[in-house]
Amino acid sequence: MSHNKPLLVVAKGAAKWVIFAVVNVWDFFESVLFVGGLIGSLMLPVVWPMKFVYAAGWLVCFFFVSKCIGKIEGYRKKKPKH
User: Fold this and answer.
1) How does pLDDT run across 61-71, given as a tens digit for each residue?
2) Entry pTM
């Protein structure tokens, strides 16, 4: 299957660029999303106890997304550069 090699090279290059873009965009927006999400959840027009439930939900979601992006970034840093 030597005729698929150029397509594989292009696909790997595109995947590297997508991972690079996701990691760098996340690094840029991480602090804004963290603070903005907490402020936004406290500004919701609901009763006070629910505001804290939404804030806790935001922190849990934010934590899991941060871990996923961290794994992607670790994968990108582990790959040997040829």
Assistant:
1) 989 988 888 88
2) 0.63
